[in-house]
Design goal:
Blueprint (H helix, E strand, L loop, with lengths): L1 H9 L4 H14 L3 E2 L6 E2 L13 H19 L19 H6 L1 H16 L5 H15 L11 H25 L5 H12 L8 H4 L1 H30 L6 H20 L2 H19 L4 H24 L6 H4 L1 H29 L1
Antiparallel strand pairs: 1-2
Helix pairs in contact: 1-2, 1-13, 1-15, 2-13, 3-11, 3-12, 3-13, 5-6, 5-7, 6-7, 11-12
């Protein structure tokens, strides 16, 4: 619940759109077999719906196929190519010394933002950029290519990646869109991320941490060496790249369940992703809702069985109570802020 509210409250656009996106994601995973009772539900007479919607067609459809549809609509748009140069791409020792405090501060901000489930690197970049501008001796240079602004936004953006792994491996809540794919892969192999991951699968727990460290080093070497070549891919016309990407999307959806129904679901969710983008509805709450709902349903029913059907432990237990209070604060803070702004205006 807190993950849903956090994502909805900081998503681009209105809070209502974010919440509606999340609730829609919760609804689409309900058809199929009831995880507690074992009965079929919401299949509407279609036997293909008995297994429900797989998470992979949903993910690929909303993000990849939805973007492909959007690119097809805008395929005639022209853009200006910028010449790529490798000279001066790395920071000098003098630059690192001058930006050390900014780099450290922005990295800490990015890590903290990454820990908050589903918020993502864009919010971390904005917060670090704003902080750097407020702390800068030359704030007038921001918006015109200021080195301080670039260092702040990019270091915070990179720091959110590692920070987003913390709620995933500690609580089983994906901290970003990338972590949703990682969590889905683990669930496909019957590995449930969360507090028990370190005891039940310690090799995976430490493997994720080690892989993140190795990935940082490899990413630095690969990106600095291959940046010029990678930039040339933007020159390839879309009508060559989009069909190839679409083929891989279809293969990825079909391989998981080996059924054509998943391919049709992929296209349907691609349409959902396209509509979301055009209507400025954030897709992250939709996917988070779809991923967390099966887990939340099973855990809630188990808890109700332990408590004899009473919901009181959700309020009386300190951990759950803190999460519920946090949810309420994030839900009503925008309304409180708006009312406070009206009072100031009236005064």
């Amino acid at each position: 619940m807190m993950a849903m509210v956090l994502i909805a409250s900081v998503s681009r656009g209105s809070l209502i759109k974010g919440l509606l996106s999340g609730f829609f994601g919760m609804l689409v995973v309900l058809p199929g077999i009831d995880p507690a009772a074992g009965d079929l539900r919401l299949t509407f007479g279609f036997h293909q719906m008995e297994a429900g919607f797989k998470i992979m067609p949903m993910l690929i459809g909303v993000f990849a196929v939805g973007q492909i549809f959007n690119e097809i609509v805008d395929i005639e748009l022209k853009f200006t190519m910028i010449k790529m140069r490798m000279k001066g791409i790395l920071m000098s020792v003098q630059d690192i010394k001058a930006q050390a405090i900014n780099l450290l501060r922005s990295s800490l901000i990015g890590t903290w933002i990454g820990i908050l489930p589903g918020i993502g690197g864009s919010i971390g970049s904005i917060m670090a950029y704003t902080m750097a501008r407020n702390m800068s001796k030359t704030p007038e240079k921001f918006g015109e290519g200021s080195e301080e602004g670039i260092v702040a936004s990019e270091s915070a953006n990179n720091a959110t990646i590692a920070g987003a792994l913390i709620p995933l491996i500690s609580m089983g809540i994906p901290g970003s869109i990338v972590d949703i794919f990682l969590m889905s892969g683990m669930m496909i192999h019957s590995i449930e991320p969360g507090p028990t991951l370190i005891t039940s699968h310690p090799q995976i727990f430490y493997g994720i941490i080690s892989a993140a460290l190795v990935a940082d080093i490899l990413m630095f070497l690969i990106m600095t060496g291959a940046m010029g070549m990678i930039a040339k891919f933007t020159k390839v016309p879309k009508y060559y790249t989009l069909p190839v990407i679409m083929v891989f999307c279809v293969l990825g959806a079909y391989i998981e369940g080996n059924r054509m129904f998943d391919v049709w679901a992929l296209l349907a969710f691609g349409g959902v992703g396209f509509v979301m983008k055009k209507a400025a509805i954030p897709p992250a709450p939709f996917i988070i809702g779809a991923v967390l709902t099966p887990i939340a349903e099973v855990k809630l029913r188990s808890g109700l069985q332990i408590s004899g059907g009473s919901f009181l432990p959700l309020i009386t237990r300190p951990v759950s109570c803190v999460f519920l209070i946090t949810c309420a604060l994030f839900l009503f803070w925008p309304l409180f802020k708006k009312l406070l702004g009206r009072e100031k205006t009236a005064a």
